[in-house]
Structure formats: structure tokens, C-alpha cells
Amino acid sequence: MGYCGGTTEAPTYRKIGDHAETIQIDFDPKRVSYDQLLEIFWTTHNPCRRAWSRQYMSAVFYADAGQQEAVERTRKLYVGEDQTVHTEVAALDRFWIAEDYHQKYRLRHEPGIYDELREIYGDEADFVNSTAAARLNGYLEGHGSQRQLEAEIGMLGLSEDKQRVLRERHR
What sign does the CA torsion over 87, 144, 74, 70 have? Predict the structure, then answer.
């Protein structure tokens, strides 16, 4: 979670300036392609809807010419040519990481599970960068299937009691 797309130096949630709230996705191209990520992007939001503020706009920021080409190509695949697209497509200048309290927001509001994970990841940066924390945050938001959760719940570092809580929250 962070901020991108503007000119304001060192944006924060309270002083976001002209940036948008964004996420940065680190991915292994051997497991998932950039095109697959773009398919998810284009098909899970309405790119033709105007944002009510720049802070919450729909945007995709590309890192290089290859990514720019992929964004434009996939947009044509998933958005009708006769539609007006309001999703901003722009070069990535800089990604500013948001304040700690914005990271893994849903997980931070599930005290028992959060507490167990913080014992594992004592350092804030390790917690924020944890794949397990990212997965748990997503499951607590209701993302992923029950089958996916069951396949990996034992690898997420939770006690049996907190695994039960996660299952209940995910349904």
C-alpha cells in the first residue's frame, strides 16, 4: 500500500497531495505473467467509471516500454473500443510506501491473528513484507476460495485456534 502518480514529495494519508492510493505488486513471472495480472486488473473494476477524487482513481503505472505495451494491448482485450476509459495509464515515477497503519489494514483489525503474526515477524518491515501477512489480509477481506485457504492455512504460521478463527471470518 502506498501512493503514486503525483508530484507531492513524501506524501502521507493526511497530505496526499496529487497522488493516488495504490498498491505495488511484486510477482514472480515464472508463476504469473504480467498479462495475467492485467487481466485481473481490467476485469475486477469498472475502468469506465470516473473516480470521485484523484486519491481513489483507477490507475495502472508501468515500469518500462514492454509493460506499457502490455497495458495498452490488454485494455483493448478487456474494455470495449466504444467505451470511454477513465483509468489512468502512466509511467511509474516513484512509489511511496504508506504509513505503517495502512499496511495489512484488515489483518491489523483482527487482534488475535495479528498478535500471533507480530510474534513471528517482530520487525515492522518484516511483517509488512511478509507473504503470509499479505495472504492472511486477503483472506480476512474475503478474497480467495475456501479451497485455496484450506490448501495453505497450515503454512501461514497460525495456531490451531487462530486457524479456526480465520476459517470463520473467511466464510
Answer: positive
